Amino acid sequence: MKNCLVVDDSSVIRKVARRILEDLAFEIVEAEDGAQALDACRKEMPNAILLDWNMPVMDGLEFLAHLRREPGGEKPKVVFCTTENDVGHIAKAMRAGADEYIMKPFDREIVEAKFAEVGLI
Amino acid sequence: MTPQEFDWLRAFLKQQSGLVLTNEKQYLIESRLLPVARKAGLASLSALIAKIKEPGQSMLAATVVEAMTTNESFFFRDKTPFEHFTDTMLPKMLEARARERRLRIWCAAASTGQEPYSLAMCLKDAEAKLAGWRVEILGTDLSTDVLEKAKAGVYTQFEVQRGLPINHLLKYFTQIGDTWQINSNMRSMVQYRKLNLLENFSSLGQFDIIFCRNVLIYFDNKTKVEILERMAKMMPADGYLVLGAAETVVGLTDVFRPMTEKRGLYQVGDGTAPGLRSSSLGAVGTAAPIGASRFASFGR
User: Domain tally for chain A?
Assistant: First the structure.
């Protein structure tokens, strides 16, 4: 079974994402910010990371930069999932090593399409 | 809506567009036609049906036909046909048409443009190999409304996230407020035309590749065969027909044969004689060509 780390400071978003991803047969680990997410990755590198941008303590972009420098940190497919929907943000995320990008609001279909795009399903 | 009204609507749609409204498609009526009724200031589907029976209501009748025949469309829908396009059809055509350096593609149910633009993106991705080639993509649809949207090439944030890789969004689209418009160099690669597949379409000329996905399902078998046979006449022996994931010609007609291991991909007859009818330049000579100025040129 593949596992996905869901990183978002909103518990509602985490719940919505969990429901969608569990239906896609992912085992879910949750984190509320980038720092928690980094701890989780150091314990066990997930196959996929659904990543919010704006979060307290450590934001998504900073987390991604740290992650890609970790041993094995190049492996997880990172899909941003954020309200930041302008070209500048998207390009910055992709340059930082994201694999795909979801602009909120999202639905089941979009998550499925994006995860399929990067070969996770 | 009474059963009598449903029967009348079913007969009306069949006669106007060839659309076969099966019982399992009944659910579509409400979701597609209630907005039409509302827009026309009518309170119910019954009122809408009564209205289109009146003489002089052909505009409203056309709107009803369009609403019922419009498909939902995604970029790179089903993915595989576009992989076949890039990995099978395009390399074969690059070889077979090396002399003419010309390729004609028809999207027979272009809808709001996602399919022709997906092909345009595939072609742009392969640009290096297409230097000096003239590639034409024609998108046709029954509905004027969807074609207007296709021409504008403006999509919502939802639409650009279904099937479109983020890198393609960055590369080929421009953000306008909350929407995304496909860039003008991509729009100019596709020409759109209103067309009912029930009518004679031989004047469109010859096509090397025809995408005809998820539209034949709306027709009965006799009409399907008739359309397929007319399409076969517009294709060289090495041309490709692409049908939807749930569609097939098997058991319907043998003018096309399925390609082994290439789901959804068909060729005319036995497909082993490129060169016999392969010159799209020669073949198109007598037909009304689509304006040459609109051809997408690569490498110029």
Answer: 1
pLDDT value of position B191: 98
**ipTM (interface pTM):** 0.94
CA of residue A82 relative to chain centroid, distance: 10
| Phi–psi pair at B150, nearest 5 degrees | -60, -45
Element (H, E) at B242: strand B240-243
pLDDT at B71 over 70: no
CA distance B53 to A43: 70
Nearest 5 degrees, angle CA B260-CA B92-CA B112?
Answer: 85
Cβ of B181 under 8 Å from any chain A Cβ? no
Residue A102: which domain range? 2-117
CB < 8 Å to B178, chain A = 85
We report the CATH number of the domain holding residue A32 as 3.40.50.2300
Band of pLDDT at residue B21, cut at 50, 70 and 90: confident
Q: Which domains does chain B have, with CATH numbers?
A: 3-69 (1.10.155), 80-297 (3.40.50.150)
Per-residue confidence (pLDDT) for residue B298, from 0 to 100: 64
3-state SS, residue B240? strand
Strand pairing of B209-212 and B102-107? parallel
Residues B234-255 have a mean pLDDT of 93
Q: How far is A35 from chain B (nearest CA, A)?
A: 26
